[in-house]
C-alpha cells in the first residue's frame, strides 16, 4: 500500500463511481479497478459494494475512509511543510556568538536575513568563542562564530573579519602619547582581560609570555564595554580588536597600535562538516557570507 492507493480509494468513495474517479484522476478505469482490488486483497476486506450503476462503501470501507482521509491529509501537510523548508519559508537556526561580536556585526545581518526569510526563527546563544566551538562540535548549536584558526578537519568555515588587536590605556598612562607600543613594554602593567572561555584570554597571555613576561591580570570580564570602562578608571590596560576600538571615547581612553608582535584577530563562521544542516542553516551560511564579505572592512 502506498499513498497513491489511498488517494484513488478516496476519489472512488467521493464520486461513488470507478469511471468518474478515473476521469478525475486522469487514469484509466482498469488502473483504478486494479488498484482498489489490490488494496482489498492487502487489507482482507471488501471496500465497495455495487448498487446499480453506483458503488457504495461497505462498513469496512467507511472505517478505511476515515483513516485514509487523515493519512492523506497528513501526507499533504508533510509535503507542504517540506516544501516550505526547501524553499526556506520556515526553519529554526541555533547560532552561537561571542558577546562583542554580536553587538558589532550581527544586528544588521540578522535584520537583513529576517527581511528575506521572515518565517525562519533564529535563537542566539552568547558565549565565549571557546564554548561556542565546543557547542557546535557537540551539536548543541548549528552554527557559531569563533576566533580562527579552528580545526578544519571537523568544521566547515569562512572568515569574515581579519584585524589586529590594539592597546587601550588611560589618557594619563605614560604610553598614552605614543603611536606604537611593543608588547614587552607592558611588562609592569596590570591587564584587564576577557574571561577564560574567550579565545583572546589565552592568546594574549601566550603572546605576553613569548614577549618575556607573565601578565598581571587584575580583572576579567565577558563585556568589552566594561573592560574599556575599567581602563578608563585606571585599573589596567587592555588589548581589544580594532572593530571594538572604533567605539572608544578618545577623551576616556587612548587607542595605540600594538607592535612586536602584532596580534591577529580573525573571526570565522563555523559548522560541523559531518552533520546534517537544515535548508535554513545552509541559506544562513550562504546569505551571511555574501553580506559580511560585502561589508568587510580593510584592516
UniProtKB/TrEMBL annotation:
Residues 1-58 form the HTH lysR-type domain. The keyword Amino-acid biosynthesis does not apply. The keyword Transferase does not apply. Signal peptide: none annotated. Keywords: DNA-binding, Transcription, Transcription regulation. InterPro entries: HTH-type_LysR_regulators, LysR_HTH_N, LysR_subst-bd, WH-like_DNA-bd_sf, WH_DNA-bd_sf. PANTHER family: HTH-TYPE TRANSCRIPTIONAL REGULATOR YBHD, NITROGEN ASSIMILATION TRANSCRIPTIONAL ACTIVATOR-RELATED. Belongs to the LysR transcriptional regulatory family. This is LysR family transcriptional regulator. It comes from Paenibacillus lacisoli.
Amino acid at each position: 500500500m502506498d499513498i497513491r492507493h489511498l488517494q484513488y480509494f478516496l476519489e472512488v468513495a467521493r464520486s461513488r463511481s470507478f469511471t468518474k474517479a478515473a476521469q478525475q484522476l486522469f487514469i484509466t478505469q482498469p488502473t483504478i479497478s486494479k488498484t482498489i482490488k489490490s488494496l482489498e486483497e492487502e487489507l482482507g476486506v471488501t471496500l465497495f459494494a455495487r448498487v446499480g450503476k453506483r458503488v457504495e462503501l461497505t462498513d469496512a470501507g467507511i472505517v478505511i475512509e476515515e483513516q485514509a482521509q487523515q493519512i492523506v491529509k497528513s501526507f499533504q501537510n508533510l509535503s507542504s511543510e517540506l516544501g516550505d523548508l526547501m524553499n526556506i519559508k520556515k526553519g529554526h537556526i541555533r547560532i552561537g556568538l561571542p558577546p562583542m561580536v554580536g553587538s558589532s556585526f550581527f544586528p544588521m545581518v540578522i535584520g537583513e536575513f529576517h527581511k528575506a526569510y521572515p518565517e525562519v526563527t533564529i535563537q542566539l546563544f552568547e558565549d565565549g568563542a571557546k564554548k561556542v566551538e565546543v557547542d557546535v562540535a557537540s551539536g548543541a548549536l548549528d552554527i557559531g562564530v569563533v576566533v580562527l584558526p579552528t580545526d578544519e578537519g571537523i568544521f566547515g568555515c569562512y572568515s569574515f573579519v581579519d584585524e589586529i588587536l590594539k592597546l587601550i590605556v588611560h589618557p594619563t598612562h605614560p604610553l598614552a602619547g605614543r603611536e606604537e607600543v611593543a608588547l614587552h613594554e607592558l611588562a609592569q602593567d596590570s591587564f584587564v582581560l576577557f574571561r577564560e572561555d574567550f579565545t583572546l584570554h589565552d592568546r594574549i597571555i601566550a603572546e605576553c609570555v613569548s614577549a618575556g613576561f607573565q601578565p598581571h591580570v587584575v580583572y576579567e570580564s565577558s563585556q568589552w564595554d566594561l573592560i574599556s570602562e575599567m581602563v578608563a578608571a585606571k585599573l589596567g590596560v587592555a588589548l581589544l580588536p580594532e572593530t571594538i576600538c572604533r567605539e572608544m571615547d578618545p577623551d576616556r581612553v587612548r587607542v595605540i597600535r600594538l607592535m612586536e608582535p602584532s596580534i591577529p584577530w580573525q573571526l570565522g563562521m563555523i559548522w560541523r562538516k559531518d552533520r546534517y544542516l537544515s535548508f535554513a542553516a545552509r541559506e544562513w551560511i550562504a546569505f551571511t557570507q555574501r553580506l559580511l564579505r560585502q561589508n568587510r572592512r580593510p584592516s
